[in-house]
Design a protein that fits this description.
Blueprint: E1 7-10, H1 16-27, E2 31-36, H2 41-54, E3 58-62, H3 68-82, E4 87-90, H4 105-133, E5 136-140, H5 154-173, E6 179-180
Parallel strand pairs: 1-2, 1-4, 2-3, 4-5, 5-6
Helix pairs in contact: 1-2, 3-4, 4-5
């Protein structure tokens, strides 16, 4: 399958796995929107470097993945600026390690929001665009913790299990369409 001419949005993509995915998709001819919570000159320079290296359009869009409205705005802005959203990669994630009875509530809320709820918000915003286009791909990054548990990682494990379950629901809801998850 070729992604040349397709448009991809990758959350949490100014470093690590997300950046690697952005580089590969750009190298294969996709237009790409990279994302993080920051909004620095370096973020925009990174997008420009990827674009120049691969001869495709790459933009940086700041959005805080802990905020549902910003997750949805990321997808809408990418569609507006790049003409579509054909591929959505839900990659953003954070981690915190602590025993359940000592786990700070604000860390729990942030991990659930960024690692799981953002996947719902971006997918909900992208599916109508994909349906209009008659094609789409949703890729959700979960890790081994989506299938198994480790001590002291309650929020992370809960969120990643949630992502796996949400992925299955999305796949079932789009099974009769040219959209895969």
């Amino acid at each position: 399958m070729s992604v040349k001419g397709k448009t991809a949005v990758i959350t949490g993509s100014n470093s690590g796995i997300g950046l690697g995915i952005a580089e590969v998709l750009a190298a294969r001819g996709a237009k790409v929107a990279i994302n993080s919570f920051s909004d620095t000159e370096e973020d925009h320079a990174l997008a420009a470097r990827i674009a120049k290296a691969h001869g495709t359009e790459v933009i940086y869009i700041q959005a805080d993945m802990s905020k549902g409205d910003q997750c949805r705005a990321l997808v809408e802005t990418a569609a507006e600026k790049l003409g579509s959203v054909d591929i959505l990669v839900n990659n953003a994630g954070i981690q915190f390690v602590s025993a359940i009875d000592e786990f700070p509530a604000e860390k729990w809320d942030a991990i659930i929001a960024i690692n799981m709820s953002s996947t719902f918000h971006t997918t909900a915003a992208a599916l109508p665009i994909m349906r209009r286009n008659g094609w789409g791909r949703v890729v959700n990054i979960a890790s081994a913790h989506g299938l198994t548990a480790s001590p002291f990682k309650g929020a992370y494990v809960a969120a990643k299990h949630g992502v796996v379950g949400f992925t299955k629901v999305t796949a079932l809801e789009t099974a009769r369409e040219p959209i895969t998850c």
